[in-house]
Amino acid sequence: MKNQNQNTDWQKVSEIELIYKTKVKSADRPYINSSRDAYRILVDSWDPGKIEFFEQFKVLLINQTNRVLGIYEVSSGGIAGVVVDVRLLFSAALKAAASGIIIAHNHPSGKTAPSEADRYMTRKIHQAGKLLDIPLLDHLIVTPETYYSFADEGAL
Q1: What is the pLDDT of residues 74-106, one digit of tens each?
Q2: Which of 39, 93, 115, 121 is the most exposed, fewest CB within 10 Å of its CB?
Q3: Under 8 Å between Cβ of 61 and 29
């Protein structure tokens, strides 16, 4: 009887399937050539009613030819901060088979200067990306009018 139970234990395990579905042709995907390109795509994706209200953290998933695979909202936070689960961020990147990522979050205050927490999170995600061979290409702090690019400022 014990052998019969052991043989059916596999049926009690959840199945995991990794798929990425897109309806966008590769040639129709936006191309990222600069931080300005990434900013335009990201700020257009932001809900205008939220960008100046509370912090949100998003990741732009990039393929090998710098085309955008998609945008994933990692988390939403409060007025002065947002918590980012790096595992969830990279699970989206892995599922989409991204070759690189650009992370972004908004500052409802309208100031784009990075905080120490912003710098720490950037380092943490940068290190995780190195380990997974999914490089962090940039981290943008966005407002409706402007942005700060860690890459452009040499802070990456």
Answers
A1: 998 888 888 999 999 999 999 999 999 999 999
A2: 115
A3: no
Task: Tell me how far apart the alpha carbons of residues 86 and 113 are, in angstroms, rounded to a whole number.
Answer: 22
Question: Residues 76, 44, 86, CA angle at the centre, nearest 5°?
Answer: 35
Both structure tokens of 44: 């257009």
Instruction: Give the residue-averaged pLDDT of 34-62.
Output: 95
Quickly list DSSP for 64-84: TTSBEEEEEEEEE--SS----
Tokens of 54: 């509370």
Give the CA count within 13 Å in the CB-facing half-sphere of 31: 5
Sequence-distant (≥ 6) Cβ neighbours of residue 92 within 8 angstroms: 59, 61, 72, 74, 98
